[in-house]
Amino acid sequence: MLYPQRFSQFTREHADTVAALLCGLLLLFGWFALHLGWLGLAFLLLPAAYVIGGYESAREGLTTLFKEKELDVDLLMIVAAIGAASLGLWRREYQLIIDGAILILIFAISGALEGYAMQRTERSIRSLMSLTPDTARVLLQGREEEIPISQLKVGDEIVVKPGELIPTDGIILSGYSTLNQAAITGESLPVEKTVGAEVFAGTLNGYGALQIKVHKPAQSSLIQRVIRLVEQAQTEAPPSQEFIDRFEKGYAKVIVVAGILLATLPPFLWGWDWETTIYRALTFLVVASPCALMAAIMPTLLSGIANGARQGILFKNGAQLEKIGQVRAIAFDKTGTLTTGQVQVFQVISVSEYTQHNVLKTAASVESSSEHPIGKAIVQAAGDLDWVAAIEVQALPGQGIVGICQEQQVIVGNAIFVQQYVTNLSEELRETVQSWEQEGKTVVWVARGTEVMGVIAIADRVRVEAAATISRLKKLGVEQIVMLTGDNQETARSVAKAVGIDKVYAQLLPEDKLDVIRLLQQQYQTVAMVGDGINDAPALAQASVGIAMGVSGSDVALETADIVLMADRLEKIAVAMHLGRRSQLIVKQNIVVALSFIMLLLVGNFLGNINLPIGVIGHEGSTVLVTLSGLRLLK
Question: With 41 labelled, which of 8, 149, 189, 237 sits at a CA distance of 20 to 30 A?
Answer without folding.
Answer: 8
